[in-house]
Amino acid sequence: MAIPGGYRFSVPFDDVFPEGAFVLGVEQAFDWDKNGNRTPAKDSVSGKLVWNVQVTDPSAKGKNTGVVVKIAAEVQPVPPETIPGLPFRPVVFEGLTATAYEQNGRVQFSLRAKEMRAPRSAGGKQATKSAAQSEQAA
């Protein structure tokens, strides 16, 4: 069975990030037009701007623990708060999808999410506002 190119399939957050994930930063994504000019990237499905969320994955072993998760939104998503006393921003991605592609003879995956939010505490309460709630408040 073949998966068509560009097909986004749902993946559970816990399967992709079994030890959680931590936001390092958020920046706007860019594409290049046929003349080599840099233009803001737009999501092919929603038409919204695309934002790259740099994430560190503690379950990744070896040299490359960095991952990018793309979020389509009109305004820049706001990461969750840091853990007091530490520079880490734990995050959970809602609506996480993966798109497979081939690069240099290897299958790679591009990750996208609908939103990011703080993980729920042991009591079940969310620690901070979600990116979507922050976007609506802006």
The helical percent reads under 10%
Helical run tally: 2
Query: What is the SS-derived class?
Result: mainly beta
Count the E strands.
10
What is the radius of gyration? 16 Å
Please indicate the percent range of residues in DSSP E strands (runs of 2 or more).
35-45%
| Domain module count | 1
Report the principal-axis shape.
globular
Explained architecture:
This protein has 138 residues and is mainly beta. It has one domain. A hairpin with a 5-residue loop joins β3 and β4. It starts with 7 loop residues before the first strand and ends with a helix. 20% of the residues are buried. The C terminus is likely disordered.
Summarize, please.
With 138 residues, this protein is mainly beta. It is built from two helices and ten strands.
List keywords for this structure.
mainly beta; disordered C terminus; 8-stranded mixed β-sheet; single chain; 138 residues; 2 helices; globular
Question: Topology, please?
Answer:
Blueprint: E1 8-10, H1 13-16, E2 21-28, E3 30-32, E4 38-40, E5 50-56, E6 66-72, E7 90-94, E8 97-103, E9 106-113, E10 115-117, H2 131-137
Parallel strand pairs: 6-9
Antiparallel strand pairs: 1-8, 2-5, 2-7, 3-4, 5-6, 7-10, 8-9
